[in-house]
Specification:
alpha/beta, Rossmann fold, five-stranded parallel sheet, 2 domains, about 20% strand
Length: about 280
């Protein structure tokens, strides 16, 4: 049996994640009490039923104090029974979560007449800290819509070979903040900026004219090659250490030209081998 624990902040996309996993063949259960999880999973794994070969269980913040501290020992017990597990943690910044709750008019599970929404979000972060510390995959959905989140989850989880490292190359603009789920962050703001060429200003780094402008500068080519050398040197080390996912974020001022070009170039380079590669341009979507 393969088990995925889906957790995260309320409003960050946990329901979308569970629905996506169900669509790709996982048997999904949401909000299962933690004290029932071990016996429940063991019972289903012992049935020999292919329907339960892949399971996903949603875990949220509605637990008593200290219960989530037992999470690591619970997973270790399942591992001894031959049940492998991964933990997926979804999060978003406070401003995004407050906006989402305001738009949907839903009530936060930890808010009440004595605790406003902002305080409930902070309390939830503290409560779920033990899960975040043990997460195998962390996704920040602050700038991700539901369709992009579905694609990310399918790319990261629905793999035939769990030992294979999958790479996500993400372009972004520093003016909107650095992606919090990035493993490596590269700053391309030191490179020549196509924005100052009027004919290129409205285009993106995907455009051949922008690519030609950037490739006419040796600094850009050297910068790209340095990133490639670094990743080629260290990806095998992360794979040997058991890492299945790596997110490489490349940023420039607005996330339109330089970072997009580099993300596309890196994806093209590494996508020609055996590594699974996904490209995402945060500011273009």
């Amino acid at each position: 049996m393969k088990l995925i624990i889906v957790s995260g902040l309320s409003g960050s996309g946990k329901s979308i994640a569970l629905n996506t996993l169900e669509d790709i063949g996982y048997y999904c259960i949401d909000s299962l009490p933690l004290f029932l999880m071990k016996n429940f999973v063991e019972a289903l794994s012992g049935r020999g039923d292919s329907r339960f070969a892949r399971m996903a269980i949603g875990v949220d913040s509605r637990y008593r104090a200290g219960e989530l501290d037992e999470f690591e020992s619970l997973l270790a017990g399942l591992e001894q029974q031959g049940i492998s597990s991964q933990t997926l943690f979804l999060e978003a910044d406070d401003e995004t979560l407050i906006k989402r709750y305001s738009e949907t008019r839903r009530r936060h599970p930890l808010s009440d007449n004595q605790r406003p929404l902002a305080e409930a979000i902070h309390l939830e972060r503290d409560t779920l800290a033990p899960l975040l510390d043990k997460a195998d995959l962390r996704i920040d959905t602050s700038h991700t819509n539901q369709h992009q989140l579905r694609d990310l989850i399918k790319f990261r989880i629905d793999k035939d070979s769990p030992s294979q490292v999958s790479l996500l190359f993400e372009s972004f603009g520093f003016k909107r903040g650095v992606p919090r789920d990035a493993d490596f962050v590269y700053d391309a703001r030191c490179l020549p900026n196509p924005y100052w060429e009027k004919s290129l200003r409205s285009l993106s780094g995907k455009n051949p004219a922008v690519a030609a402008f950037l490739e006419s500068h040796q600094d850009v080519l050297s910068y790209k090659q340095d990133i490639i050398k670094f990743l080629e040197r260290w990806i095998p080390c992360f794979a040997a250490d058991g890492r299945s996912y790596l997110t490489v974020a490349i940023g420039c001022t607005g996330g339109q030209h330089r970072s997009v070009y580099l993300a596309e170039q890196l994806s093209s380079h590494f996508g020609n081998g055996t590594i699974s590669v996904l490209t995402r341009h945060r500011e273009l979507t």
